[in-house]
Amino acid sequence: MNVLIDKFDVFAGGFWLTLQICILAAIGALILGGVVAVLRISPVPPLRALGTGYVNVFRNMPLTVVMFFAAFGLPALGSNADFLRIPVIDSLFTRLGTDLPYFRFALIALVLYTAAFVCEALRSGVNAVSPGQAEAARSLGLTFGQNLRYVVLPQSWKASIVPLGSVIIAMIKNSALVGFFGVVGDLSQTADQLTSAEGYAFVPVAIGISIGYLIMTVPLGALLDRIEKRQAVAR
Amino acid sequence: MDDVTTGEPLIVLDSVNKWFGPLHVLDDVSLSVGRGEVVVVIGPSGSGKSTLCRAINRLEPINSGTITFDGQPLPAEGKPLAKLRSEVGMVFQSFNLFAHKTILENVTLGPIKVRKEKPAAARERGLALLDRVGIANQADKFPAQLSGGQQQRVAIARALAMQPKAMLFDEPTSALDPEMVGEVLDVMTSLASDGMTMVVVTHEMGFARHAANRVIFMADGQLVEDAPPAEFFANPRSERARDFLSKILTH
């Protein structure tokens, strides 16, 4: 078990990188998922079809395949995803700005994939609001956007938050895949590095990286439980 | 109440048809409602009367025929439809007050967001309307803290806050405890005598008798009778209406 102490800095570095990926991917997926959810409940049929198509594609494709498309498809199209080198943010999350594009590719894949699930979690919240609320808003003359903003969304987020949390926890675990698509130094790739290249026993290393993931997911799960209990009381 | 304003009618339905799948819920319905007129729609459940009411502000789209409001055909969607709806007040069976907003916010949301009124002015008028329906002292409460009758009166105030040209009532008292029906009908009666154009779907025969200019009887999606209340209740022409009245008036 000495590896946990001897290589503490490696584990810590892997944890930090995975945390960065997860924070960025969560933000991206929440924004994109929100947009897709609005498309899916829009009154305009082509927009609805677009949203539904998006969810059907990305919810039903294995994340590994999405990662392949990002890591091999984007370079084939001549893109290094440089649009993700966003000033200020790339100084906070330094991997965004590096010349090796794999962090950005992995991020794109994780965002595209997770956004489909975020969309459905948000939509389940919207469906939990009684249809009469939106009907009353429409009959006052509120437009679709006003209806969402002032009537439906303020009531739907409560019902969305628990399924959304589950989606984000799943995303944190899914991020373990990025190490196999060129991202060097995240938690899962750290395990591979320590065992295959440096010859450490697998089990202690696996325990180390598990602890890393649990530090991220367990508090999030506990937070969700608390929110759920508070909602039960409010009802 | 017989001094109904003449001139061009406010609401005109012409050969309106609607199907829910194989069910013909509105079967060639034609109807016109004059300005200031109070039309009460009665009929057995499933006769299409709620659908008729909801079609007038296009909460239910129709399959064929035309509906015109204030001389304009109903817009299909978007901003023009939103504008039309802002001119037609709607009161629902289940109140549908915005659960996350206070009573006063419920009443002022439309004027502020749709009519772009100044919040202070909207609040002042909102309070006056709440006062008119007798709940000004509950303005800062949330809908769930009010009784059903109070909630429905707020819903009426919310619709009136838009200064609508007509009001639609879709079974406004059907979800209420019996002792609260009166307070809502009182508000509706006072509206009627103030000259508001109203289409009221209801089972309250007393209201139909004393407040309506016309009673519409519907059955199986068809408009079966259209007569002044005194005439309709004393002497229904159709077998369906006689049958319906005998069932509800014997108890």
TrEMBL record, chain A:
<feature type="transmembrane region" description="Helical">
    <location>
        <begin position="15"/>
        <end position="39"/>
    </location>
</feature>
<dbReference type="InterPro" id="IPR000515">
    <property type="entry name" value="MetI-like"/>
</dbReference>
<keyword id="KW-0029">Amino-acid transport</keyword>
<dbReference type="InterPro" id="IPR035906">
    <property type="entry name" value="MetI-like_sf"/>
</dbReference>
<feature type="transmembrane region" description="Helical">
    <location>
        <begin position="101"/>
        <end position="122"/>
    </location>
</feature>
<feature type="domain" description="ABC transmembrane type-1">
    <location>
        <begin position="15"/>
        <end position="224"/>
    </location>
</feature>
<keyword id="KW-0812">Transmembrane</keyword>
<protein>
    <submittedName>
        <fullName>Amino acid ABC transporter permease</fullName>
    </submittedName>
</protein>
<comment type="similarity">
    <text>Belongs to the binding-protein-dependent transport system permease family. HisMQ subfamily.</text>
</comment>
<dbReference type="InterPro" id="IPR010065">
    <property type="entry name" value="AA_ABC_transptr_permease_3TM"/>
</dbReference>
<feature type="transmembrane region" description="Helical">
    <location>
        <begin position="201"/>
        <end position="224"/>
    </location>
</feature>
<dbReference type="InterPro" id="IPR043429">
    <property type="entry name" value="ArtM/GltK/GlnP/TcyL/YhdX-like"/>
</dbReference>
<dbReference type="GO" id="GO:0043190">
    <property type="term" value="C:ATP-binding cassette (ABC) transporter complex"/>
</dbReference>
<keyword id="KW-1003">Cell membrane</keyword>
<keyword id="KW-1133">Transmembrane helix</keyword>
<feature type="transmembrane region" description="Helical">
    <location>
        <begin position="60"/>
        <end position="81"/>
    </location>
</feature>
<keyword id="KW-0472">Membrane</keyword>
<feature type="transmembrane region" description="Helical">
    <location>
        <begin position="159"/>
        <end position="181"/>
    </location>
</feature>
<dbReference type="GO" id="GO:0022857">
    <property type="term" value="F:transmembrane transporter activity"/>
</dbReference>
<dbReference type="GO" id="GO:0006865">
    <property type="term" value="P:amino acid transport"/>
</dbReference>
<dbReference type="Pfam" id="PF00528">
    <property type="entry name" value="BPD_transp_1"/>
</dbReference>
<keyword id="KW-0813">Transport</keyword>
UniProtKB/TrEMBL annotation, chain B:
<dbReference type="InterPro" id="IPR003593">
    <property type="entry name" value="AAA+_ATPase"/>
</dbReference>
<protein>
    <recommendedName>
        <fullName>ABC-type polar-amino-acid transporter</fullName>
        <ecNumber>7.4.2.1</ecNumber>
    </recommendedName>
</protein>
<feature type="domain" description="ABC transporter">
    <location>
        <begin position="11"/>
        <end position="245"/>
    </location>
</feature>
<keyword id="KW-0472">Membrane</keyword>
<keyword id="KW-0813">Transport</keyword>
<keyword id="KW-0029">Amino-acid transport</keyword>
<keyword id="KW-1003">Cell membrane</keyword>
<dbReference type="InterPro" id="IPR017871">
    <property type="entry name" value="ABC_transporter-like_CS"/>
</dbReference>
<dbReference type="GO" id="GO:0015426">
    <property type="term" value="F:ATPase-coupled polar amino acid-transporter activity"/>
</dbReference>
<comment type="similarity">
    <text>Belongs to the ABC transporter superfamily.</text>
</comment>
<dbReference type="Pfam" id="PF00005">
    <property type="entry name" value="ABC_tran"/>
</dbReference>
<keyword id="KW-0067">ATP-binding</keyword>
<dbReference type="InterPro" id="IPR003439">
    <property type="entry name" value="ABC_transporter-like_ATP-bd"/>
</dbReference>
<dbReference type="GO" id="GO:0005886">
    <property type="term" value="C:plasma membrane"/>
</dbReference>
<dbReference type="GO" id="GO:0016887">
    <property type="term" value="F:ATP hydrolysis activity"/>
</dbReference>
<keyword id="KW-0547">Nucleotide-binding</keyword>
<dbReference type="InterPro" id="IPR027417">
    <property type="entry name" value="P-loop_NTPase"/>
</dbReference>
<dbReference type="InterPro" id="IPR030679">
    <property type="entry name" value="ABC_ATPase_HisP-typ"/>
</dbReference>
<dbReference type="GO" id="GO:0005524">
    <property type="term" value="F:ATP binding"/>
</dbReference>
<dbReference type="InterPro" id="IPR050086">
    <property type="entry name" value="MetN_ABC_transporter-like"/>
</dbReference>
